[in-house]
């Protein structure tokens, strides 16, 4: 799980380096995130069927080998297209590993540690995304940006060797006759990829002025409608869309997508702005995000026990109030100090500590145990795909509004924008003064655009928070069950693992036992 998240985390502070290495623009470098996330979201859909069909150990070995092989273009390739293919394959491997590793953590843990393993699965997913950018920035500053993905190989080989030596597949557990909706997955992939291409290329093609954008939108809608109609009639749909008719699930989806998009797309743009416009090194830009790990990881570690005592809507409210405070109080300008930026991200990290657990409790409330695996698949798919779309949208908005502010600043002072600043620099020739003026102008326009993005994130946090307060309580009880539903129980059920009360007989069954998953 850590390795799958690291393959994504190291690229967050590397977008300017990727753009420079492949002689492309910064908004094209964002594709390294969106390709990864798109493949991750799509691969999660058949992941459960695959490890039930071919065995957990075999799928673990295949996914880990695929992840390492797909990392080779990151290290050696000078072709941007091959690099993106590698990123897509890495995302697919991460999608296969995400539910599989969560299941293996719970299944092979001692009975009394299975609930702890359920909590640990959340920490291992989010920890690299919070702490990874700082480590990747230090690696890029000390050696080279291509050294960051090299960490995949020793960690991957160690995990592959240890798991292969310690675990064995039982062929009797393979479910060879279980059906899967491959046509539905094909339609879903076509719709998702079409919308992602539209968002990736929209800024290059001038959005709705280009016929290609309108054709892509129409094509994507056709694929999406075909997918919805197909899933409604299929006896075993790849995604259970009927869950979207449940109020709690539907109203929590915008908050889920926004939090993931801010964690990945928002932070990657913030770091890119520091590197390209404020002349931060990759190390110091990554250090700006380090307080997120210092405040977020301890909160995530205690969120399971805390959620037993505090209602999820209140915990989610803390999350998005802190995100709003982060958006409205962070200032990006020439006077912004490193300490002030780190303090703001300490606030954001604390907010993300309250992110996943409360939203999961709200979304899965009132669901029978038999529907939790399908709900977990749909939740993961929407969260990751929505994060990919928001990353593209945030990038386009930042660049577009940067052009707007640049034009506005030039209109205010067309002869010498930022002249008061350029006079303090030792320039020798007029062309040097003009270049300096252009650089300062670009820096200021993108800083103003980033300030606007921060305010947008603040308003978005308040909007999704309002939706969460429209959900229906109580959140943690099911009909016929007296005790409260905990996040550990929901995680165990999401990977088709059932909690059984301990008995006093000598041959006590484990706390968690496997159950056969019904076809979806």
Detailed description of the structure:
By secondary structure, the protein is an all-alpha fold. The chain has two domains: 2-180 and 236-409 and 437-499, MFS general substrate transporter like domains (Growth Hormone, Chain: A); 181-235, no CATH class. Helix content is 71%, strand content 1%. It has helices spanning 2-9, 15-21, 26-29, 31-54, 56-76, 80-107, 114-142, 152-166, 182-201, 211-233, 247-277, 282-307, 312-329, 338-353, 356-363, 372-412, 419-422, 430-468, 487-494; strands at 497-499, 512-514. The protein has a two-stranded antiparallel ribbon with strand order 1-2. Helix 7 packs across helix 19 (487-494). It is globular and about 70 Å long.
Protein traits:
single chain; 520 residues; mainly alpha; 2 domains; two-stranded antiparallel ribbon; 1% strand; globular
Secondary-structure map with pairings?
Elements: H1 2-9, H2 15-21, H3 26-29, H4 31-54, H5 56-76, H6 80-107, H7 114-142, H8 152-166, H9 182-201, H10 211-233, H11 247-277, H12 282-307, H13 312-329, H14 338-353, H15 356-363, H16 372-412, H17 419-422, H18 430-468, H19 487-494, E1 497-499, E2 512-514
Antiparallel strand pairs: 1-2
